[in-house]
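Predict the 3D structure for this chain.
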Amino acid sequence: MDKARTLLVLAAPRTGSNNLITLFNAHPGIRQTYEIFHPKKAYSIKEQDVAAINSRGHNFPEEYFSEDKEFARFRRQEAVRFLDILAEDTLAAGYPVLLTKIFRGQLEEDTLKAVINRPNTAVLVLYRNPLDMVISRLKASITNRYTLSDTTTLVPELTIPDLKSGIAQLTNWFTNVNALTKDIRDRGVFSYEDLFGRSQFMAIRQINSFLESVGMTPEIPAYVKTRLTKQDKAKRWQDKISNPDEIEAWLKAEDAINSFGHLFGQQ
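Done. Predicted structure below.
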């Protein structure tokens, strides 16, 4: 059966991926599914969606929708089959492109490799300065709200062990992503700073240019209404935590922070 083209967004938490998905959602030819490999449940796949999919002649297994941990594990282990079913239904529903987001740790490396190498798949990698990612995650964990939370006035203390652990996890993730995707012809790489550090108009131009380069019609309109998480009113990371001098001293001693752009040939 014919399938829609698949566009995978590979990202770590706190890279602006929700805002990116919102921009893609304004494209009339793209069906977005947010986080279908989340360990808790397949976000955006609801009972009515399952019923609609099956009404179009598919046999969408109920376990893919279940929030039970065992079924969630099954869903991730059968990731390629899951995407194939969704891609078939996406085209049947009138969308030429299926978009989904995969976060760090949601799929085992072998499964992620199989998903990336599915036929007719394009990949967009989204990264950010690692220090900003760690600080943003710290703020979100303190408030226990990971979307739509206003933490612009929150300046917590960042410990060296937390920073070291965060940097190590992110470095491993982006190193693996680069190794898995470097030979993918239809790959785009964007940084949070490039996309969201300037105007939305420029971000949409960059995304439309990427879509055109991978053979997808660039139709995201010039303006899209978004609901950004209010975390980064301060531009300098030193203004986002209470102990910047301690962190700066460690960074200088260890030379520990580099952008991930060098992994992708962007520096």
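The mean pLDDT is 84.
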